[in-house]
Amino acid sequence: MICVRCDKPIRPGQKYVAVDHHSASGAGTTVHVHAQRCVPVPQQTYSRGPYGR
Q1: Is residue 48 classed exposed, middle or buried when 0-12, 13-18 and 19+ CB atoms within 10 A define those classes?
Q2: CB within 8 Å of 26: residues ≥ 6 apart
Q3: Cβ-count burial 6-45 (b if 16+ within 10 Å, e if not)
Q4: Each residue's pLDDT tens digit, 20-51
Q5: Nearest CA among 30, 44, 43, 40 for reference residue 8
Q6: How far apart are CA 53 and CA 14, in angstroms?
Q7: Residues 3, 9: contact at Cβ < 8 Å?
Q8: Which is it for the CA torsion 12, 19, 31, 34, positive or negative?
Q9: What is the rounded CA–CA span in Å between residue 9 and residue 1?
Q10: Phi/psi class of residue 46: alpha, beta or left (left: φ > 0; alpha: ψ in -120 to 50)?
Q11: Sign of CA dihedral 25, 43, 8, 3
Q12: What angle do CA 9, 4, 37 make, to 5 degrees?
């Protein structure tokens, strides 16, 4: 399993929390996060274009 918060593997024996995400338009999904707070992956941002837009 991969932790959706830090994007690192959850190894056998490590504690984790399963979080259900429901969807109105389709099947829901279950994601996993480390039980102890981990460092989140930085969010990608878009650079400014050549014309400052």
Answers
A1: exposed
A2: none
A3: eeeebeeeeeeeeeeeeeeeeeeeeeebbeeeeeeeeeee
A4: 988 888 888 999 999 998 888 877 677 666 66
A5: 40
A6: 45
A7: yes
A8: negative
A9: 6
A10: beta
A11: negative
A12: 80
Two structure tokens written together for 49: 């274009």
DSSP 8-state secondary structure symbol assigned to residue 2 = B
Contact predicate 6/40, CB 8 Å? yes
- DSSP, collapsed to helix, strand or coil, labels residue 3 as strand
Do 18 and 12 form a contact (C-beta atoms < 8 A)? no
Over 90: is that where the pLDDT of 2 sits?
yes
